[in-house]
Amino acid sequence: MIRSMTGYGEASIQHQGTHYFLEIRSLNNRYFKGTIRLPEVFQGLEAEIEATLRQKLTRGSITVTASCSDATASAAYTINSHALGSYIEQLRKTPQVAGGEVKIEIGPLLALPGVLQPPADEEARLTRARNAFLQLLTRACAELEKMRISEGALLKADLLNQRTVIAEQLKAVSARVPSVVGDYTTRLRTRIDQLLRESGQSSPEKTASQSAEPSTSWPRRCSARPTPWPAKATT
């Protein structure tokens, strides 16, 4: 079965007022290359998600993007009133604030270290996110595999069609081979004769025909009577 290297899959789930979403994209690559993009609070799940992804997909450049939106009250950060009060007290002692030149605004103070505390059940939130994302990863991989198979079927059909076209073209080329070879041979011989005439030499055909003609001088030379040897003297 032919499978395409490119594909896309996504899945989402709603759990206890929290919406989880995950998408996966695959591009051509001879080897496996995974890129995991998670919300900052769930970065600790990256290694586990990549290991699970390697078990399901072995080739391709795979990009997994996950997001989470929690609409429940448990997602709210807690304001550390002691830390905020300490910052305000320090600011009041500054000459600019004491003199009324600068007013204290609470908004910027919330970004100071220690003012906002994450939810107390952070570990429970991480566990819920792990279970949700791993479940969504399995579903998204299944969708991606379906798309790969579908793209592979289209690729196979295209290859078979191209094979038919190539076979027809080969038949046409084979039918033209004798005439093309003959035309090329004629042009080549014409060119050779032209070059030989320009150089004052005979063409190979004429030279071969002259070499094949029998020589008339050799029989005349051979037909002459040999000179007899002189007779021995007698005593």
What does this 3D model show about the protein?
The protein is α+β, with helices and mostly antiparallel strands. Among the domains are: 7-72 and 121-161, Ribosomal Protein S5, domain 2; 78-109, no CATH class. It has 7 helices and 6 strands; from the N terminus they run βββαββαααβααα. The protein has a 4-stranded mixed beta sheet. Strands 5-6 form a two-stranded antiparallel sheet. Strand 1 (7-15) and strand 2 form a beta hairpin. Helix 1 packs across helix 5. 9% of the residues are buried.
Summarize it:
This protein is of the alpha+beta class and 235 residues long. The protein is built from seven helices and six strands.
Chain-wise SSE layout:
Elements: E1 7-15, E2 18-27, E3 32-37, H1 46-56, E4 60-70, E5 78-79, H2 81-92, H3 95-98, H4 106-109, E6 116-117, H5 122-199, H6 204-212, H7 217-223
Parallel strand pairs: 3-4
Antiparallel strand pairs: 1-2, 2-4, 5-6
Features:
235 residues, Ribosomal Protein S5, domain 2, 4-stranded mixed β-sheet, two-stranded antiparallel sheet
User: Within the CATH hierarchy, at the fold level, what is the topology of the domain at 7-72 and 121-161?
Assistant: Ribosomal Protein S5, domain 2
CATH structural class of the domain at 7-72 and 121-161: Alpha Beta
What is the helix/strand order?
EEEHEEHHHEHHH
Structural class: alpha+beta
Shape: elongated
- CA-based gyration radius: 47 Å
Strand residue percentage: 15-25%
Compute the separation of the termini in Å.
114 Å
* Overall CATH architecture of the domain at 7-72 and 121-161: 2-Layer Sandwich
Helix content: 40-55%
